[in-house]
Amino acid sequence: MSSGIEYYEDRFRRVYLEHFEPLLAYALRRVAHPEDGADVVAETFLVAWRRRHDIPADDEARLWLYGVARRVLANHHRGGVRRQRLGERLREQIAVAVAVDPGSEVPERLAVRAALAGLGELDREVLMLTVWEGLQPREVAAVLGVGPAVVRTRLSRARARLREMVGDDLGPPGHVLDVLTAATRKEQR
C-alpha cells in the first residue's frame, strides 16, 4: 500500500520538476503581474497534487497541466473582474459618503476637529463612537472593553471639555455643533 502512495508522490515530484518552468512561462505570458503568474502556477500544482492519481503518463502530463492552468487562469481573470467591479462600487460609495457632508470645509468644523484632537484618546473615542457612530454607552463599553459607567463618565467629561475648547454659542450660520449637542439614543436596559 505504501509503495502505491510513494509511487504517486515520486511521480508528482518528477512532473513538478519537469514542468514547473514551462508552466510558469505559460502563466506569465497571460497575466499582468508576475506574482499573479506565480499564484496561477501554485494553484495549478495544488490541483495536480490533489489529483495526482489522475495525472496522465509521459507527455500527456504536460498537456493535462496546461489544461488545469488554463482553467486556473480563467478563474483568476474572473476573480480580477469581480475585484475590479467591487472596487468601483466601493469608490462610488466612498464618493457619495464624502459628498454627503457639505460642512466638511466649514472652519467651525475644523475647530471642532482640532478640539477633538486635544482630548485624551479614550475620551475622544468615547465621544466619537457615541455621537458620530450612534452607539449607546453599553455598545461603546463593549467596543472599548470598559464598563458602561466608565463610558457615561468619560462622555460627560469629554463633552464638557470640548465645550470649553470650542464654546457653545451658535456662531454664524454653518457652525457645527453636532459633536457638542447631538442627543444619544436612550440606552436600553
From TrEMBL:
The keyword RNA-binding does not apply. The keyword Kinase does not apply. Residues 110-162 form the RNA polymerase sigma factor 70 region 4 type domain. GO terms for biological process: DNA-templated transcription initiation. Residues 18-79 form the RNA polymerase sigma-70 region domain. InterPro entries: RNA_pol_sigma-70-like, RNA_pol_sigma-70_dom, RNA_pol_sigma70_r2, RNA_pol_sigma70_r4_t2, RNA_pol_sigma_r2, RNA_pol_sigma_r3/r4-like, WH-like_DNA-bd_sf. Keywords: Sigma factor, Transcription, Transcription regulation. GO terms for molecular function: DNA binding; sigma factor activity. It comes from the Bacteria. Belongs to the sigma-70 factor family. ECF subfamily. This is Uncharacterized protein. It comes from Micromonospora noduli. The lineage of its organism: Bacteria, Bacillati, Actinomycetota, Actinomycetes, Micromonosporales.
